Amino acid sequence: xxxxxxxxxxxxxxxxxxxxxxxxxxxxxxxxxxxxxxxxxxxxxxxxxxxxxxxxxxxxxxxxxxxxxxxxxxxxxxxxxxxxxxxxxxxxxxxxxxxxxxxxxxxxxxxxxxxxxxxxxxxxxxxxxxxxxxxxxx
Length: 138
Known about the structure:
Elements: H1 8-16, H2 22-40, E1 43-46, H3 49-64, E2 76-80, H4 107-114, E3 118-123
Parallel strand pairs: 2-3
Antiparallel strand pairs: 1-3
Helix pairs in contact: 2-3
């Protein structure tokens, strides 16, 4: 069974039960993106494996020492490209922001990280979230 076929809560339970490590979950998520991205075009930015694995190790340590106990601890997640993430390209799917890297992280992402989730990238969207079909997306 593929880890990516599990719901976030199911994957979180497997991580908590030590059936799966956070690194294994993150690698599975990155592999799924890599396998499908050319055809799907679902991401604007995928974080590099090194930074994702570093975060996965930090989260694993917090799970192991009992600091992180929530149901989503260790689960990989992607955020829309209109939500600021410090030092990570955030374009809002617009050519105008082709090189914008925010100096802060939005509270929504801070809360995901506090819950122990591992951000793997920024997902595609209509430019500035002005639409509903992503037909004119990046």
